[in-house]
Write a structure and sequence with these properties.
Number of helices: 1
Structural class: mainly beta
Largest sheet: 4 strands, mixed
Mean pLDDT: 93
Number of strands: 9
Helix content: under 10%
Strand content: 35-45%
Length: 98
């Protein structure tokens, strides 16, 4: 059985999502991954640039991914963590007569 796992990633609020990636494990013996599978899964998330801080699933869909070696393919979601944006402010000193 092959396991295709969406990589966990993070970003700050207000930034674009990083590229969604995956890893594939479970090849037997000397099976060449380039020959044992063809195509790629489709990765997606509901998070966009305006999404609030929190965690969002990274979903996988088989799309064109298949195995000519009769491997069963197990898909494992990843997590996109959106961190709160940092707020910076500057205080200017002031003086006055008493």
């Amino acid at each position: 059985m092959l396991t295709v796992h969406a990589a966990d990633i993070s970003r700050d609020y207000g930034e674009f999502n990083p590229q969604l990636t995956f890893t594939t494990t479970g090849f037997i013996g000397g099976d060449d991954p380039a020959l044992a599978t063809e195509g790629e899964p489709f990765l997606s998330t509901t998070a966009d640039i305006d999404s609030a801080a929190g965690q969002y699933a990274i979903a996988l869909d088989l799309q064109t991914l298949k195995s000519g070696y009769n491997y069963t393919i197990n898909l494992v979601e990843g997590v996109l963590t959106v961190s709160p944006a940092q707020l910076f402010y500057r205080v200017f000193g002031a003086s006055r007569e008493y």
